[in-house]
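Field log, afternoon session.

UNIT: design team B
ACTIVITY: writing a sequence onto a fixed backbone
BACKBONE:
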C-alpha cells in the first residue's frame, strides 16, 4: 500500500516530534537519579528542564516566522539535525553546568520541530480532516507519554545517559524520511518579507523578565525594589513590542491574527491550560519517588494512567470536533481536566493509589479532548501563509505557560521543607522520613495542584467564548478534491 503525501507528512512529523516528547518524559523520571549522579540540588537539576522550556519559548516565534518566509521542509530538517546532535552532547555531559548548556543546543532543534510539525500537517490535510489528523498526532504523542516514563525508568536503572542517546536513531530515521518525502509548499509571501530582529529582542526581554519576576520574586519579595524594577522592565518591553508589531509591515508576531475570535480565545485557552497543567508531571514524579520512596521504573508505571487518558481521548476528540465543532468538545475537555486536577489536590502522603490513578486518568481524558480540537480550529482559521506564525504562537504560549507553571510550583514545594530534607528524602526514601516531613512535602505538592485547578477555570471560560466554526464550509471542503 502506497501512502499519499498527507499521511507521509503526518508520519514524518510524528516521528520527529516523538523524540522530543519521549525526551521530556523520560528525562523527568531520571531527575532524582541525575541529581545524585551529578552531585547537585533539586534547583540545580531543574535547570536543564527550565532552560529547555525557556529556549523553546523564546525562539518559537523565530522559527514559525522563518517557516513562513523561507519554507517548512528545510527548517524542519535543520531542527532534526540540531536536536539529534544536541542529544548526543547532553549524553556525554560530566556535570550539571555542561548538561544545562547542551540542553540549550538541543532546545533550539526541539523548538524548530515543535513550531513546524503542526504547520506541515495543516498544509498537507484538507481543512475538514484536520481534526482527525491532529487527533492521530495527539494519540501518537500521548502514546509516547505512556511509553516515555516507563522507558525512562528502565533506561535510568541502566544508565541515565541513555535517556539522551536513544533520541539519536529516532532523529536519524526522521531525517532520512524528511529529506526523501517532505515537500515545500508554494506560499505567496515565501522569501518576500524581512525578519523583525528588533521585535525578537524586545520579546526576549519581556519573556525573561516575566519569568524572573514570577519564578524568583517570592525570595526577595514581589514588592521589593529589585522585583518591582524587573516588573517595570517587563511592562515597558511588552508595550514597546506590541507597539512595534502593530506599526511595521513585517512583524515577528502578526497581532492582527488575534482579531479572529477563534484564534484569540483558542490561543488564550492554550496559555491558561498550560499554566494549569505544566507542573503536573514533575509534581507526580516528586510525589512517587520522593514521598512514596519508589524507584524510577515503579514510579513511571504508576504515572501511566495520566497518559493513557490522553491516548484514548486524543483521536476521539479530533473525530468529534470534525463532526460537531471544536468549541464544545474542547471546553468539555477542560472541565473534565479540572475535575482530575481537583482530585489530585486532595491527596495525602498515604492516599490509596486507586484514587490517585483515577484522578490522573480523568485529567488525561480531559487534556486529550481539549488539545486536538482546539489546535485544529485555530490553525484552520488563518490563511496558509500565516500558519507558521500561528503555530509558533501556539507553541510559544504553551511553553511559556508551562515555564510559569513550574516557576509557581517549585517555590511552593521548596518552601514546604528545607532543601536538605528534600535531598535526604530522595537518598533514603520518603517512607523512611518522619511523618511530619512527608506531610509537609505532600502539602506543598497538593497546594500546587490546587492552584492548577483554579487556573483551569479561566481556561474553560476562554474556550467557551471562542465561537463556533462554520461547519458547512468545512464539510464542503472535506467533500471536495483531496490533496495528493
Amino acid at each position: 500500500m502506497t501512502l499519499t503525501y498527507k499521511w507521509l507528512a503526518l508520519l514524518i512529523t510524528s516521528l520527529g516530534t516523538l523524540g522530543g516528547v519521549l525526551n521530556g518524559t523520560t528525562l523527568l523520571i531520571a531527575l532524582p537519579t541525575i541529581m545524585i549522579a551529578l552531585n547537585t540540588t533539586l534547583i540545580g537539576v531543574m535547570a536543564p528542564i527550565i532552560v529547555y522550556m525557556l529556549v523553546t519559548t523564546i525562539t518559537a516565534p523565530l522559527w514559525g516566522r522563518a517557516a513562513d518566509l523561507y519554507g517548512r521542509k528545510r527548517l524542519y530538517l535543520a531542527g532534526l539535525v540540531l536536536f539529534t546532535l544536541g542529544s548526543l552532547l547532553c549524553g556525554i555531559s560530566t556535570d550539571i553546568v555542561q548538561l544545562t548548556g547542551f540542553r540549550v543546543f538541543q532546545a533550539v532543534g526541539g523548538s524548530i520541530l515543535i513550531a513546524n510539525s503542526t504547520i506541515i500537517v495543516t498544509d498537507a490535510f484538507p481543512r475538514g480532516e484536520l481534526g482527525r489528523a491532529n487527533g492521530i498526532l495527539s494519540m501518537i504523542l500521548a502514546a509516547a507519554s505512556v511509553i516515555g516514563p516507563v522507558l525512562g525508568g528502565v533506561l535510568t536503572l541502566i544508565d541515565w545517559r541513555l535517556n539522551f542517546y536513544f533520541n539519536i536513531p529516532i532523529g536519524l530515521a526522521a531525517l532520512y524520511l524528511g529529506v526523501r518525502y517532505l515537500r515545500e509548499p508554494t506560499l505567496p509571501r515565501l522569501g518576500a518579507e524581512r525578519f523583525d530582529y528588533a521585535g525578537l529582542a524586545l520579546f526576549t526581554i519581556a519573556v525573561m523578565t516575566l519569568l524572573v519576576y514570577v519564578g524568583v520574586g517570592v525570595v526577595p519579595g514581589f514588592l521589593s525594589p529589585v522585583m518591582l524594577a524587573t516588573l517595570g522592565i517587563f511592562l515597558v518591553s511588552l508595550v514597546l513590542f506590541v507597539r512595534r508589531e502593530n506599526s511595521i509591515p513585517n512583524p515577528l508576531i502578526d497581532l492582527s491574527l488575534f482579531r479572529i475570535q477563534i484564534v484569540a480565545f483558542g490561543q488564550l485557552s492554550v496559555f491558561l491550560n498550560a499554566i494549569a497543567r505544566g507542573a503536573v508531571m514533575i509534581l507526580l514524579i516528586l510525589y512517587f519517588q520522593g514521598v512514596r520512596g519508589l524507584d524510577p521504573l515503579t514510579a513511571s508505571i504508576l504515572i501511566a494512567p495520566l497518559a493513557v487518558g490522553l491516548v484514548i481521548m486524543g483521536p476521539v476528540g479530533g473525530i468529534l470536533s470534525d463532526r460537531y465543532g471544536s468549541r464544545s468538545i474542547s471546553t468539555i475537555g477542560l472541565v473534565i481536566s479540572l475535575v482530575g486536577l481537583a482530585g489530585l489536590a486532595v491527596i495525602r502522603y498515604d492516599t490509596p493509589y486507586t484514587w490517585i490513578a483515577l484522578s490522573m486518568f480523568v485529567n488525561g481524558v480531559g487534556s486529550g479532548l481539549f488539545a486536538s480540537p482546539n489546535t485544529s480550529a485555530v490553525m484552520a482559521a488563518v490563511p496558509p501563509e500565516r500558519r507558521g506564525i500561528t503555530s509558533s504562537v501556539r507553541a510559544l504560549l504553551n511553553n511559556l505557560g508551562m515555564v510559569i507553571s513550574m516557576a509557581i510550583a517549585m517555590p511552593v514545594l521548596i518552601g514546604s521543607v528545607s532543601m536538605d530534607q528534600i535531598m535526604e528524602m530522595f537518598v533514603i526514601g520518603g517512607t523512611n522520613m518522619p511523618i511530619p516531613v512527608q506531610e509537609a512535602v505532600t502539602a506543598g505538592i497538593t497546594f500546587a495542584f490546587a492552584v492548577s485547578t483554579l487556573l483551569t477555570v479561566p481556561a474553560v471560560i476562554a474556550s467557551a467564548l471562542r465561537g463556533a466554526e462554520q461547519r458547512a464550509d468545512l464539510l464542503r471542503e472535506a467533500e471536495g478534491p483531496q490533496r495528493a
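LOG NOTE: Residues 470-484 have pLDDT under 50 and may be disordered.
NEXT ACTIVITY: expression trials, pending approval
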